[in-house]
Amino acid sequence: xxxxxxxxxxxxxxxxxxxxxxxxxxxxxxxxxxxxxxxxxxxxxxxxxxxxxxxxxxxxxxxxxxxxxxxxxxxxxxxxxxxxxxxxxxxxxxxxxxxxxxxxxxxxxxxxxxxxxxxxxxxxxxxxxxxxxxxxxxxxxxxxxxxxxxxxxxxxxxxxxxxxxxxxxxxxxxxxxxxxxxxxxxxxxxxxxxxxxxxxxxxxxxxxxxxxxxxxxxxxxxxxxxxxxxxxxxxxxxxxxxxxxxxxxxxxxxxxxxxxxxxxxxxxxxxxxxxxxxxxxxxxxxxxxxxxxxxxxxxxxxxxxxxxxxxxxxxxxxxxxxxxxxxxxxxxxxxxxxxxxxxxxxxxxxxxxxxxxxxxxxxxxxxxxxxxxxxxxxxxxxxxxxxxxxxxxxxxxxxxxxxxxxxxxxxxxxxxxxxxxxxxxxxxxxxxxxxxxxxxxxxxxxxxxxxxxxxxxxxxxxxxxxxxxxxxxxxxxxxxxxxxxxxxxxxxxxxxxxxxxxxxxxxxxxxxxxxxxxxxxxxxxxxxxxxxxxxxxxxxxxxxxxxxxxxxxxxxxxxxxxxxxxxxxxxxxxxxxxxxxxxxxxxxxxxxxxxxxxxxxxxxxxxxxxxxxxxxxxxxxxxxxxxxxxxxxxxxxxxxxxxxxxxxxxxxxxxxxxxxxxxxxxxxxxxxxxxxxxxxxxxxxxxxxxxxxxxxxxxxxxxxxxxxxxxxxxxxxxxxxxxxxxxxxxxxxxxxxxxxxxxxxxxxxxxxxxxxxxxxxxxxxxxxxxxxxxxxxxxxxxxxxxxxxxxxxxxxxxxxxxxxxxxxxxxxxxxxxxxxxxxxxxxxxxxxxxxxxxxxxxxxxxxxxxxxxxxxxxxxxxxxxxxxxxxxxxxxxxxxxxxxxxxxxxxxxxxxxxxxxxxxxxxxxxxxxxxxxxxx
Length: 920
Ligand code: GLA
Known about the structure:
It contains 16 helices and 45 strands.
């Protein structure tokens, strides 16, 4: 180091230089050594892999794009300095120039005392290295936004001060995390990951710290966090990382609360979230193949992952942050088998700057699909850890055992019973994993609420509730529960020496208010925006609309009663003639038909379409919303339409014209409630029909009086002392327009009698007598999926599974999942499938509904009645495949969780008339 420069260097880098080392063996470089010198290979050899995080310019870190140039620059330093300066802007230039002037760019290996929690290492001034590949990083806290504008001297000073101020902190070491042969290794020590899933988007930002403190107090040392692509990129190239989307802040708070983080950025996340996190706007790419190497899909994925890397890669443990590892995709084995696609996702994460271990997760029996040895494999299951780890070991013989989704409960769908987990089994299985050095992640540790219109949809069409309480140990409103304390007590038995559990933080205050009337209304038909003309109705995305409702209008001629039919209505179509409600067509019905009455003269036909969330799981993800053409009346196609977009966003709501008094049909209702002080409350929506609710401009989610949820969680941080405004869009109308604030949620109250399409399964009668079974046999005991091949293909629109008895000798039948196989043995898509007939299903004490057998999820299952009556075998489940199919066999997935109903002897029927309309 020359004269003052050296002096300054020492001042600048004094304490740090002490730790200057070559990444892979850091012994032989002594301070004051001047590059290029005999060790200059450090420059030449190692190449700078880019982690100088200047003020972001146009979203891309210039350094990343120019690593190669820099390498070359470093190698031949003298002649290239000028063009480097051209290349870099703002702080890059400054640092590089300073460093080069000082002939000194460096990595500082930080030696870390063994500290269990991540919080210890969150120094704000960092120099870091990556053990695997030499990486040179200069990361300056508070760094990203302003530096370009700061003049060099000031910044130089700051760096010096920071270094000096950071003193010990600057020398604070980063931790290391690795996947060992049997264990996860934190700083070379075995780490048993006790993880729990919490979604930042499902918890008000103001409450993140309270929830994370609860997680820590329950005994977790790590949180798993999904990212939802569509939340972060609402429009192509427009990224949002603030407010509820500020996942970097969520990670930082987790670190401060002593929790590591496992990041699950997707691009597909499932999670009962709108389209599994995939952005709706990709639906406008005709025929796009999601979750595949379709370049239109992968291109968008890479842009997104790059952005995720920009924001979250600096929070990896390799950079002093809490992120231990990152998941590539999500349960891809359920969806496809293309290992190259998984490779592309992996590479996308690497290119985005993720250098911690990358992993894939799947249920063990789907792990081999798309398998890659360069991705650590985690297993998802809700029971039988011994059996499931054994299956996982049969695919991956070494590596830590990690159950990345262990279910304490399950999610709820509208019209189906509220799910409660079996706590004893949950605790028993957790203890098994603790005792057998396995790591795990409780999905969900805290479910929270799917605010807004983000709740997704399962197939066959089963929209999920906005409450995502999930019967998790930490309740929707962040309350401790008996399951919380049982889990805490269990974990307390398995703590590391010296590790203690903090006390749980207090719950947020709860307030109530007596019923208030919403006495102002804005009818939808009186608040329509300008219409868009179109010959034929297109889907919602076609009109560049992602969420909300959409109204289709045309004029129909005078005439007799006629059937109005659409290709499909996604998801609820409220049909009116000249403003008078005629009926409701919904996606639960096999066809989108409605009989219109006679009209003496031409009439205005309005179809208000209310989508629920887009399908988040399985083949049905390409879930266009709106009216799907052709639309015919009496068989004649209707053309010449006007389209009215109702996006339900802030701008749209602000434009509504309210009037005093009630309204008929679909309308917005508005009212106020007064609070002495703000606090959490649960809006009682049991008097309302179906729609969405807002408080003080925050959309709390959807509601539907059929249940099981009858309340909406209203976080106190979104309320205030004094007047608070409620707005409700109700598509069918309240019985009384009042709302009260309750002290507790109502999550388990079903009202099938209030369902406007109660018997969405058309009444039929069985017609098996004349049909010869396509196959019969005996299923093997146990939970393994079983593929049954027919002696000869059979064809038909209906598929019937008949149980003759069960392995446990009891009168019950249960099915985890049913797939029908085509001539190539490939499962046929469940799209358009409905349940045509089932002789018995338990829907009172648990959700044993028949739809669970064809929802693609093996954790949920069909189970015949056991609470009120126990009808005996034979039990029949008949699936309407939507059209005649040639069937070569089927896959029977027994119920996965321990319990009755695993079928032993069975018969299968295939045909076009296994059921006949009742009365025929
Ligand atoms: C799967 C998914 C999760 C979630 C759960 C069900 O395993 O990976 O995202 O959908 O099921 O809650």
